[in-house]
Amino acid sequence: MSDAPRIEDVLKDYLSNQQGGSRDADEKLCTLLLEFSELLFGENEDQKEDRITLKNLGSFELDEFLHFFLTDMHPDDSLVQSRAKDFLKRFRKFLEKRNLLGKAQLEDWKEFFQENGI
Fold this sequence. Notes:
- This protein has 118 residues and is mainly alpha-helical.
- The chain has one domain (7-115).
- The protein is built from six helices and no strands.
- The protein has helices spanning 7-16, 23-41, 48-51, 59-73, 80-97, 103-115.
- It is globular and about 40 Å long.
- The relative contact order is 0.15.
């Protein structure tokens, strides 16, 4: 088992300590990010939540979430990507403040944010 925190726990902690942004929008995006992670990484229905950790989310996964999953799930919502970018920006600040991203993962995330103008 990894020492990295489970993504579900990190998202719950983020919501309980949320500062700025819309709570409703952030709750919805947290749910969508968790759902995306479960679809991407969950192999066994009984164990998937235990295995999905923050370390699983790299720039590739963030890109898939932002550019494909959200637009597929909400094709009629023209602002979903904009709200997701705002959410990811706040979420990253939260993760950095709590030192939850390793050095390599932090660099990977920074590259994603630069490439996407976040």
